[in-house]
């Protein structure tokens, strides 16, 4: 018989865990996937565009929805009527096509959908950025598109003319005014809302993109690869293939996905990065990371035309114009605060912060709700000396000189009101979780207090005393202890 020792070990008895049968919660039923009539209806849509019709029909049926709101960017609105017909034919819901302009994920317009009586919303073509507050279901469908190079090439569009849903705007503005004035809930709050995110996968010629990078950069260079959400999957695949020969960085600016950038949100990179390579068409998103990293050369690969080009930005001119607007605004007697009502562009918390700052300085101000901001509209209010727009920071950067009065972004307003100092590198952190101040929506000061997560395991009644077997001298259980 082994000798008794004075060492005592107290281990709580483990309770058996009883689990029910596993369910595949996200598997579309075969009755929908194999529905011959549904398959035939889908053929009315272009074959190289995956609108996730099967999943949409399934989710609408699951939710027992009676009214579905469809929101598409302008480039996809030509398919809206076909999608609406399919949903109405294969579900019990009727549909509403929302025709207002949609610039990005910040324009998801659940306010208007709610005002129109919708209980289900489908937003096409963007990743989730603004979380819906009121709708019980909000489904984001990010398109999967197969590119046929040579058959299609997007052209740069001129600035859009204003479009209004006059009959819906009063209710939408009233809802946002309640949030702004009463401060009930922040704009990105979710409470018991069922959300579904389907990520983008655009198929492109990855091999040509990779060969282009290799042709232009010698091995060993440090390259930062970025893109819009539509090409993130291709970006990840190419970055993995390049890593054996290059120091590849796929930066992340949370809450965005790795490699994803927005026109107002991009990461600040290490100065040792040799080049920024942007995968995508157009310059709007690329300019964001160029502004945030003026010392790093930037390049663009267009997956449609397969053209690889060096891109430039006049940083000195931009900074000079913005400083001029800030200096002019400092002498303003009466301010105007514009709350953007185009979807979720406006942030009530940022609005409240700026209101408090102006009140503390004794500066009078006027609140204005606008879905889109134009020089002619603001010129009608001659008594305002300077404007602060809480909608899109790039509106001030790109178009601020077109306005007769200073039109500041929230960051520029913080500089003008001596709350922040002017940065030589203009911050592009509007939706970043690590933004520099409370003049951005996702700053910690503007986030709701989340309830503590419920512990999944009960704590031990008594701590486990250390034994001779544990060489670490820990008082909590560790892996070396015997059962």
Automatic annotation (TrEMBL):
Binds 1 [4Fe-4S] cluster per subunit. The cluster is coordinated with 3 cysteines and an exchangeable S-adenosyl-L-methionine. Keywords: 4Fe-4S, Iron, Iron-sulfur, Metal-binding, S-adenosyl-L-methionine, Transferase. The keyword Methyltransferase does not apply. Pathway: Protein modification; peptidyl-diphthamide biosynthesis. It comes from the Eukaryota. Residues 436-461 are annotated as: Disordered. Its cofactor is [4Fe-4S] cluster. One of its GO terms (molecular function) is 2-(3-amino-3-carboxypropyl)histidine synthase activity. It catalyses: L-histidyl-[translation elongation factor 2] + S-adenosyl-L-methionine = 2-[(3S)-amino-3-carboxypropyl]-L-histidyl-[translation elongation factor 2] + S-methyl-5'-thioadenosine + H(+). Transmembrane segments: none annotated. Residues 436-448 have a biased composition (Polar residues). It holds the Pfam family Diphthamide_syn. InterPro entries: DPH1/DPH2, DPH1/DPH2_1, DPH1/DPH2_2, DPH1/DPH2_3, DPH1/DPH2_euk_archaea. GO terms for biological process: protein histidyl modification to diphthamide. The keyword Iron applies. Its EC number is 2.5.1.108. Catalyzes the first step of diphthamide biosynthesis, a post-translational modification of histidine which occurs in elongation factor 2. PANTHER family: 2-(3-AMINO-3-CARBOXYPROPYL)HISTIDINE SYNTHASE SUBUNIT 1, DIPHTHAMIDE BIOSYNTHESIS PROTEIN. Belongs to the DPH1/DPH2 family. DPH1 subfamily. This is 2-(3-amino-3-carboxypropyl)histidine synthase subunit 1. It comes from Gymnodraco acuticeps.
């Amino acid at each position: 018989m082994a000798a008794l020792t004075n060492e005592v070990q107290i281990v709580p008895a483990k309770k058996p865990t009883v689990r029910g049968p596993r369910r595949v919660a996200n598997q579309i039923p075969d009755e929908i996937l194999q529905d011959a009539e549904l398959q035939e209806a889908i053929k009315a849509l272009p074959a190289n565009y995956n609108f996730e019709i099967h999943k949409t029909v399934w989710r609408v049926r699951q939710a027992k929805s009676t009214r579905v709101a469809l929101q598409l960017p302008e480039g996809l609105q030509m398919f809206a009527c076909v999608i609406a017909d399919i949903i109405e034919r294969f579900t019990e819901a009727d549909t509403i096509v929302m025709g207002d302009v949609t610039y990005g994920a910040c324009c998801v317009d659940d306010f208007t959908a709610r005002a129109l009586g919708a209980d289900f919303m489908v937003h096409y073509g963007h990743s989730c950025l603004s979380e819906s507050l009121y709708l019980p279901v909000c489904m984001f469908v990010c398109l999967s598109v197969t590119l046929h190079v040579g058959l299609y090439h997007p052209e740069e569009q001129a600035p859009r003319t204003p479009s209004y849903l006059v009959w819906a705007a009063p209710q939408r503005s009233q809802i946002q005014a309640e949030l702004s004035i009463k401060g009930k809930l922040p704009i990105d709050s979710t409470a018991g809302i069922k959300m579904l995110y389907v990520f983008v996968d655009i198929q492109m010629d990855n091999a040509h993109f990779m060969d282009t990078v290799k042709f232009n950069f010698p091995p060993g260079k440090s390259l930062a690869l970025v893109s819009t959400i539509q090409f993130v999957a291709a970006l990840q695949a190419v970055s993995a293939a390049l890593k054996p020969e290059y120091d590849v960085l796929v930066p992340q600016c949370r809450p965005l996905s790795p490699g994803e950038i927005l026109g107002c949100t991009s990461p600040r990179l290490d100065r040792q990065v040799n080049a920024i390579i942007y995968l995508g068409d157009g310059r709007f998103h690329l300019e964001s990371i160029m502004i945030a990293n003026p010392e790093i050369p930037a390049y663009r690969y267009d997956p449609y035309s397969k053209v690889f080009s060096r891109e430039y930005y006049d940083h000195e001119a931009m900074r000079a114009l913005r400083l001029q607007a800030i200096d002019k605004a400092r002498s303003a007697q009466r301010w105007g605060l514009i709350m953007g009502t185009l979807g979720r562009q406006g942030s009530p918390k940022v609005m409240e912060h700026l209101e408090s700052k102006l009140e503390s300085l004794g500066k009078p101000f006027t609140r204005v709700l606008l879905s889109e901001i134009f020089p002619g509209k603001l010129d009608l209010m001659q008594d305002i000396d300077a404007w602060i727009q809480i909608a899109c920071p790039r509106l001030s950067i790109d178009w601020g000189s077109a306005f007769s009065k200073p039109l500041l972004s929230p960051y520029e307003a913080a500089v003008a009101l001596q709350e922040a100092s002017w940065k030589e590198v203009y911050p592009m952190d509007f939706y970043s979780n690590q933004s520099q101040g409370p003049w951005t929506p996702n700053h910690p000061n503007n986030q709701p207090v989340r309830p503590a997560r419920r512990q999944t395991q009960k704590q031990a009644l008594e701590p486990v005393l250390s034994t001779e077997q544990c060489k670490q001298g820990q008082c909590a259980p560790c892996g070396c202890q015997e059962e």
